[in-house]
Amino acid sequence: MASLKEVRSRIASINSTQQITKAMKMVAAAKLRRAQDGITQMRPYAQKLSQMLSTVSAGAELAADSPYKQARPIERVLLIVVTADRGLCGAFNTNAIKAAISLINDRYAAQARAGNVEIMALGKKGAEAFVRRGFRVNTKHVNVFGSLNFATVRRAAEEAMDGFASGRYDVVDIVFNEFKNVATQIIRTEQMLPIVAAEAPAGATSAVNYLFEPSEDEIITELIPKTLKIQLFKATLESNASFYGAQMTAMDKATENAGELLKELKLVYNRTRQAAITKEILEIVGGAEALAAE
Amino acid sequence: MQVEIITPDRKVFTGEATSVTFPGSEGQFQVLNDHAPLVSTLARGPIVVQSAAGQQSFTVDGGVVEVLRNKVLVLAEAVIV
Fold first, then answer.
1. Superfamily of domain A63-200+208-249
2. What is the ipTM of this complex?
3. What is the model's pTM?
4. Of B45, B25, B37, B56, which Cα lies nearest the Cα of A52?
5. Segment 33-72 of chain A within 8 Å of chain B by CB
6. Is the pLDDT assigned to residue A146 strictly greater than 60?
7. N or C: which end of chain B has fewer CB within 10 A?
8. C-alpha–C-alpha distance, residues A115 and A76, integer Å
9. CA atoms B9, B14, B67, B32: torsion sign
């Protein structure tokens, strides 16, 4: 059985670990709230944008000649993988990376063999993982989560869009964790480019006669890139909130486990202590009896 | 009329206004009360909101504006206040 001193030092060390995990859980909870605020802040913009797009395109055909709509035979693939910068969040990063890899193996196996799959990593963990696996990784935008706002995500989105428009990529997919609730993240794969035909807005034939300045078509061409950028921005916000949710649950579990371990160790400690005391008493009683017998 | 200026990061402005001047992509224009329904793209420039309380200016980096039934809605990607 371990000595008293050993057990005592283990208890002390687990105690401090538990304090750390508890603190990390609180921090994650606070940051989660801010990340969720970010989603709610973005929502009105996204809603109004799609509303506007449907009112404008109710009359006109959705700009069929948009450079972002061309469906080409798929030769070169860009995969935007959204992970986090840090670990200690359970399987959060692993899940996204795994999903991306299985997507490559299932859908883009031929392109991957030809070396035509490029990864754009948002989040350090994903970048590291794909570099290690020998993929071509664009790490220019890896730091978006340092200060997550629209301006930084927009640059990443613009690069992907330019790449598609200029024919450098034939398809752009996003892999990210969607925030369902604090404990649940859903891995999602969305096609960003070419644009997937939006479902016909039900009965959105606007009765209002708008003045269009400069013209419906030009407004649509202006709106489409905006919706694409918002799509990527939404993915990063969702992933960010999911990350803090995952970290919170992971740290909660860790704190709980530390508590259980502490309970067990305390039992061992007390048992050892008791055994030592009993042994001492036996020795004293034995000694006293020996003296009395003389 | 009710004016809203929204970016993906936050709501920049909501409130009543008597007139708003926009940097339209075809040239500057002004929207007053009871303006006809309008959708227009914006160029980079200042949006000037004139209200009873005074005048406020927001510089946007392009965007879209919708005017409908005395509701003015501006969607901009970035606002430099």
1. ATP synthase, F1 complex, gamma subunit (3.40.1380.10)
2. 0.88
3. 0.87
4. B37
5. 38, 41-42, 44-46, 48-49, 52, 55-56
6. yes
7. C
8. 9
9. negative
